[in-house]
Design a protein that fits this description.
Blueprint: E1 5-7, E2 15-17, H1 21-27, E3 35-37, E4 45-47, H2 48-57
Antiparallel strand pairs: 1-2, 3-4
The chain binds zinc ion (2 copies).
Length: 101
């Protein structure tokens, strides 16, 4: 069973439909600037100081970054160097420019 509502990470009193949680997170009135979110799952939000520990235990880590889904959330990570499991590959650019012609 999949609970369609999940609690807002900033305020447990906010019950948000799972499909809208990311939008709520952006607009939540209780948003905390010292919170950051998990590189593996943007709905895992916690104090920035806890993120590094969380990334070691994150249940979403096993499905980390399918090939067709670049890790767009990494730009929002405000903590120093979360321990990512793989190095980022160069971006796959369909219009890859060839410099040595
Ligand atoms: Zn909220
Ligand atoms: Zn996580």
């Amino acid at each position: 069973m999949d609970d369609p509502f999940i609690a807002c990470p900033y305020n447990k009193m906010h019950r948000i439909p799972r499909s809208r949680i990311q939008r709520h997170i952006v607009k939540c009135p209780d948003k905390r600037l010292d919170y950051s979110f998990c590189p593996y799952n943007a709905t895992h939000i916690m104090p920035a100081k806890d993120i590094i520990k969380h990334t070691e235990e994150c249940p979403s880590k096993v499905i980390v970054f399918p090939e067709d889904k670049p890790p767009v959330v990494k730009a929002a990570i405000a903590v120093p160097k979360p321990m990512l499991q793989r190095e980022y590959l160069p971006e796959t650019d369909p219009n890859h420019e060839i410099w040595d012609d």
